[in-house]
């Protein structure tokens, strides 16, 4: 399948030709497929934001290309404008960009600038409000009367209303509490599933990207050292640690179990996967897996039916503890 958006040998220098010149991206080859949900991870200053600002033409490469459906997005001003309607970019803390008198007007700003007729603008406003979980009564309120989480959803709805085929979000859950973060991620997932849009999520949270993304792209010092499914990327735990990223908590737990001689898989990075892995280990038997509880006697096969519920409850408690820690 051909990429919907990609970069070829993308290099970007800030303050080029001055003593303060800094290379933010160096020869980056990046691609995203239609309908894909991928995440870009990297520590602060790694080049994540610089990369995504190239994807809809906010930044122009020092060298290299940015292609949308195989065509350079900078081949003409008209082409760049078209791509900006197809590649929606939600900045970090987008609620600071709200400015209209009502929520409806704020969401409608993008569709109106696309030259759509009033009926189509209205359809898009109401549909995007539904995608982000805003009730109809909220549309006539001032955006400045809403909570922080609601403002964030209004800002995301304003981008979704343009119905981009590629939706790029820079730290969309930054500064939100766990319940607010979960709602935002649910909204993004709904848009991805219903519109079959390509979603590119930028995040610092390893747990977040492990749960949501089909593929991870790691950016480090302006290059991409790793790209692939979460299980593959998180298998490079030591390298990620040296990059200041780390791995999900569950991956660390299972790495420790394996170091202790327990026969469990290494590619575990979410609580549901951990639950399944522990249950499978218990059903194989503690003698084979090395999974013994402290001071536990040898179990007979008849005892095993009690182990699975215990493990399930234990993993549910681990999930609660993990959410509390966040």
Architecture blueprint of SSEs:
Layout: E1 5-14, E2 22-32, E3 37-41, H1 48-55, E4 63-68, E5 71-72, H2 77-86, E6 87-90, H3 103-113, H4 118-131, H5 148-160, E7 166-170, H6 178-195, E8 198-202, H7 206-212, E9 215-220, E10 223-228, H8 230-233, H9 237-242, H10 249-259, H11 271-284, H12 286-289, H13 304-325
Parallel strand pairs: 3-8, 3-9, 6-7, 7-8
Antiparallel strand pairs: 1-2, 1-4, 4-5, 9-10
Helix pairs in contact: 3-4, 3-5, 4-5, 5-6, 11-13
Question: Key features?
Answer:
44% helix; Rossmann fold; globular; six-stranded mixed β-sheet; four-stranded antiparallel β-sheet; 326 residues
Architecture overview:
It is built from 13 helices and ten strands. It is α/β, with parallel strands linked by helices. It folds into two domains: 5-240, P-loop containing nucleotide triphosphate hydrolases (Rossmann fold), CATH 3.40.50.300; 249-325, no CATH class. Residues 297-312 have low confidence and may be disordered.
């Amino acid at each position: 399948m051909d990429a919907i958006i990609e970069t070829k040998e993308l290099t970007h220098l800030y303050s080029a030709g001055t003593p303060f010149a800094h290379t933010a991206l160096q020869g980056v080859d990046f691609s995203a497929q239609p309908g894909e949900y991928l995440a870009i991870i990297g520590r602060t200053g790694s080049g994540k934001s610089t990369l995504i600002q190239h994807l809809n033409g906010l930044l122009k490469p020092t060298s290299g290309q940015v292609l949308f459906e195989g065509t350079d997005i900078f081949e003409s001003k008209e082409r760049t404008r078209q791509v900006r309607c197809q590649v929606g970019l939600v900045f970090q803390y987008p609620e600071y960009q709200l400015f209209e008198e009502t929520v409806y007007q704020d969401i409608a700003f993008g569709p109106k600038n696309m030259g759509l007729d009033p009926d189509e603008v209205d359809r898009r406003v109401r549909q995007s409000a539904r995608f982000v979980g805003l009730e109809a009564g909220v549309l006539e309120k001032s955006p400045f009367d809403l909570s922080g989480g609601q403002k964030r959803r209004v800002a995301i709805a304003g981008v979704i209303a343009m119905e981009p085929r590629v939706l790029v979000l820079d730290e969309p859950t930054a500064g939100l509490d766990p319940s607010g973060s979960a709602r935002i991620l649910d909204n993004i997932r709904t848009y991805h599933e219903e519109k079959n849009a390509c979603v590119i999520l930028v995040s610092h949270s390893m747990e977040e990207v492990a749960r949501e993304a089909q593929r991870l792209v790691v950016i480090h010092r302006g290059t991409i050292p790793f790209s692939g499914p979460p299980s593959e990327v998180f298998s490079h735990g030591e390298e990620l640690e040296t990059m200041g990223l780390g791995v999900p908590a569950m991956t660390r737990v299972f790495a420790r179990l394996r170091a202790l001689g327990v026969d469990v898989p290494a590619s575990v990075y979410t609580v549901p996967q951990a639950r399944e892995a522990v249950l499978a280990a218990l059903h194989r038997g503690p003698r084979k897996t090395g999974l013994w509880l402290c001071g536990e006697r040898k179990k007979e096969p008849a005892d095993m039916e009690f182990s699975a519920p215990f493990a399930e409850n234990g993993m549910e408690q681990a999930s609660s503890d993990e959410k509390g820690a966040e």
